Amino acid sequence: MIVKSAEFICSNTQVSKLPAPVMPEYAFIGRSNVGKSSLINMLVSKKGLAKTSQTPGKTQLINHFLINENWYLVDLPGYGYARISKSKKEDWDKFIRAYLDKRESLQCVMVLVDSRLEPQKIDLQFCNWLGEKGLSFVIIFTKADKQSAIKTDQNVAKFKKGLLATFEEMPPYFITSAENQTGRDEVLGFIDEINKGFEIPEYKQF
Ligand SMILES: Nc1nc2c(ncn2[C@@H]2O[C@H](COP(=O)(O)OP(=O)(O)O)[C@@H](O)[C@H]2O)c(=O)[nH]1
Ligand SMILES: [Mg+2]
């Protein structure tokens, strides 16, 4: 896929105010600081599209970006930020889970996992929840440039093992680096394939 255009459409705090679900949509999510903003900017080759920052836990909005005028890239707030209050965490949970569970046009959840780390409980738990809800997801391992390919492969294998404790098979996964564009063609190619089969779902108009 060649990305010709990428534009910010809207930020939402309410599921009822999302754009009409008439285009295929892909939600990017992961722990704070996993490299989500960097990955999104790398995918669409636009540096400032999703804000990168050193301050985790800032974005608490559902951000819609329209790519090539035919699909939505959705930037979701990061999970697992230790320094937010319990009630805020619960709000996050409700809001994001409602979105993921109810969004008719959502094609796939792109779960970002830091390739430098051993499997994190919170990532596995989130994948399990997606599985329980019957939502399609893939794993995007980030920051692969930060260590050797061997180390990355070892962490991928461990994550796989963690998932296979509950799943019958490993979902598709991608090894990426925002730094040197690793995995860009693969992720965009995956999205392109799904877009080809997209049909506008039935939905309620408000
Ligand atoms: N070396 C390297 N650093 C990265 C990569 N992706 C993100 N980072 C760095 O990791 C930090 C967090 O990235 P950011 O995209 O803001 O993470 P977010 O909180 O998940 O949106 C920043 O300092 C980025 O520069 C990558 O692929 N390679
Ligand atoms: Mg970010």
TrEMBL record:
Its cofactor is Mg(2+). SUPFAM superfamilies: P-loop containing nucleoside triphosphate hydrolases (SSF52540). GO terms for biological process: division septum assembly. Residues 22-197 form the EngB-type G domain. Keywords: Cell cycle, Cell division, GTP-binding, Magnesium, Metal-binding, Nucleotide-binding, Septation. HAMAP family: GTPase_EngB. NCBIfam families: GTPase_YsxC. Necessary for normal cell division and for the maintenance of normal septation. This is Probable GTP-binding protein EngB. The lineage of its organism: Bacteria, Pseudomonadati, Bacteroidota, Sphingobacteriia, Sphingobacteriales.
